[in-house]
Amino acid sequence: MHNSVSFGQFFFVVVVFTFLLRTLLLWARWKLLKQGTT
Predict the structure, then answer these.
(1) Phi and psi, residue 19, nearest 5°
(2) Plot region of 12 (φ>0 → left; ψ -120 to 50 → alpha; else → beta)
(3) Tens digits of per-residue pLDDT, 15-33?
């Protein structure tokens, strides 16, 4: 087993997950703000 490879894959998954989560939160907040002003 290669621990470095598994750690790299885990790190990549965490980065992608956090990026998608932040994008989703920003999109939801933008939609709520747009809904409130309209």
Answers:
(1) -65, -45
(2) alpha
(3) 999 999 999 999 999 999 9
d(CA 11, CA 31): 30
Residue 8: both structure tokens together: 């790299």
Whether the pTM exceeds 0.85: the reply is no
Cα separations (Å) of 32 from 5, 7, 24, 36, 37? 41, 37, 12, 6, 9
Measured CA to CA, the distance from residue 21 to residue 19 in angstroms comes to 5
